[in-house]
């Protein structure tokens, strides 16, 4: 189990490994393009070589790319939906070129349409993304907090999607999102119950990565509001139980806590819990 956080690619994507190293990360997450929109920066041979060299220099092996915020595979707008398909596929190809293991994505929102129809639309979009894909990076679906008919807040929806996809796909489990969706994580008993539910519904072997975030909101309130580790409603005991759980021993954890200068404290807390 390694710990890291989302780091900046300002200036060049090749800067991400050095930014992660400076933040005392053992693994890291990044965007490979602007999360707000626009074309992706070209991955030249020189840029890829520099990225890989910096990974080696910093002693880093595990990294992930997060897709842009505007992805919506459930959109009834053809341009948005098809653009989402194209961009996720591009991110998988870019990750494979860089040697990055995972690409994680949000799925989108049903908005005005029937939720079952929206879920099927997402499944169809994911099928298009992976058709003919032969790269090395694995696609991970991120669970949601469930606000505003966002897809993927319950384990049953994630299971439905994964059953229609190749085995080389998995889940990025966000602790804040799960908690907001009603899955309790505050105690060892609650963590055991939630992970058993996940295992029975989705399969624990499909859990490849964890976004480790405390929650400003209460359990089941569907509010996606991240907090620093131990300062939210999940609390230290919940994270201790996650880190100690034998079925998660080789699952890396990435922080997406608020960017206010306290992220290094969060990594320190996680490392202390692991070391104990």
Describe the structure.
The protein has 276 residues and is an alpha/beta fold. It has one domain (3-275): Divalent-metal-dependent TIM barrel enzymes (TIM Barrel, Alpha-Beta Barrel), CATH 3.20.20. 39% of the residues lie in helices and 14% in strands. The chain is built from nine helices and ten strands. It has helices at residues 16-22, 45-57, 78-98, 115-130, 155-162, 175-180, 188-201, 236-244, 263-275, and strands at residues 3-6, 27-30, 63-66, 102-105, 138-142, 169-174, 207-211, 214-215, 226-227, 252-255. The strands form two sheets. The protein has an eight-stranded parallel beta barrel with strand order 1-2-3-4-5-6-7-10. Strands 8-9 form a two-stranded antiparallel ribbon. β3 (63-66), α3 (78-98) and β4 form a beta-alpha-beta unit. α3 (78-98) crosses α4 and α7 packs across α8. The longest helix is centred in the first third of the chain and has 21 residues, at 78-98. It is globular. It starts with a strand and ends with a helix. The model has no long low-confidence stretch (mean pLDDT 96).
């Amino acid at each position: 189990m390694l710990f890291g956080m989302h780091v900046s690619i300002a200036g060049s994507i090749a800067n991400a490994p050095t930014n992660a190293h400076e933040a005392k990360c053992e693994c890291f997450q990044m965007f490979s393009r602007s999360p707000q929109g626009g074309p992706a920066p070209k991955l030249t041979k020189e840029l890829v070589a520099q990225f890989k060299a910096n990974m080696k220099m910093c002693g880093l092996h595990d990294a992930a790319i997060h897709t842009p915020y505007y992805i919506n595979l459930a959109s009834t707008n053809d341009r948005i939906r098809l653009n989402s398909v194209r961009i996720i596929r591009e991110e998988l190809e870019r990750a494979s070129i860089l040697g990055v293991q995972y690409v994680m994505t949000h799925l989108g929102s049903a908005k005005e349409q029937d939720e079952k129809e929206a879920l099927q639309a997402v499944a169809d979009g994911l099928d298009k993304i992976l058709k003919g894909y032969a790269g090395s990076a694995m696609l991970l679906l991120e669970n949601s907090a469930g606000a505003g008919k966002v897809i993927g807040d319950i384990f049953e929806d994630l299971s439905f999607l994964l059953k229609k996809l190749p085995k080389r796909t998995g889940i990025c489990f966000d602790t804040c999102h799960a908690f907001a969706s009603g899955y309790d994580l505050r105690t060892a008993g609650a963590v055991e119950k939630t992970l058993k539910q996940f295992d029975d519904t989705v399969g624990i072997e499909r859990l490849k990565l964890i976004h480790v975030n405390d929650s400003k909101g209460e359990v089941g309130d569907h509010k996606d509001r991240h907090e620093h580790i131990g300062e939210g409603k999940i609390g230290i005991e919940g994270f201790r139980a996650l880190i100690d759980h034998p079925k998660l021993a080789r699952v890396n954890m990435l922080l997406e806590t608020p960017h206010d200068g306290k992220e290094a404290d969060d990594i320190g807390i996680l490392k202390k819990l692991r070391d104990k």
